[in-house]
Design brief:
The protein is an alpha+beta fold and about 120 residues long. The protein is about 35% helix and about 30% strand. The protein has one domain. A 5-stranded mixed barrel has the order 1-2-3-4-5. Helix 1 runs antiparallel to helix 3.
Length: about 120
């Protein structure tokens, strides 16, 4: 991907976080075609990196998904990576707990650092 495309995707993701921060929620238009992840868990990544979502997608053959998260609402059943919506189903009961607000705060800070990095190059 070129820096221009990366920048457009990052700006789009930033605008989604802005909408989420004022109470907007994704609906059928956003989630209707999203991949569904089962047996999912969220873990904190290393310093400066977004939280990670891991789970199983049951396409024709089960596939493990790992995605960097920008936002998540387990009660509403959705998550947002930098480039896609994900529908959540069947949380891994043994997974560590996490704070959805912190997932969004860390995701927003990561996005800003990525945009600044593109501006410098």
């Amino acid at each position: 991907m070129s820096d221009l495309i990366d920048r457009e995707w990052l700006l789009h993701a930033t605008s989604i976080l802005d909408l989420l921060s004022v109470g907007w929620q994704p609906g059928r238009a956003e989630l209707g075609t999203a991949r569904q992840v089962n047996n999912w868990a969220v873990t904190a990544a290393s310093a400066g990196r977004p939280y990670q979502l891991a789970g199983t997608i049951h396409a024709p053959v089960p596939v493990v998904l790992t995605a960097s998260l920008l936002a998540i609402d387990p009660q509403a059943g959705w998550a947002r990576s930098w480039d896609e919506w994900i529908v959540l189903d069947g949380h891994d009961a043994g997974a560590p707990t996490f704070d959805p607000a912190d997932v969004q705060r860390v995701g927003a800070a990561w996005l800003i650092r990525q945009l600044i990095g593109l501006s410098v190059h």
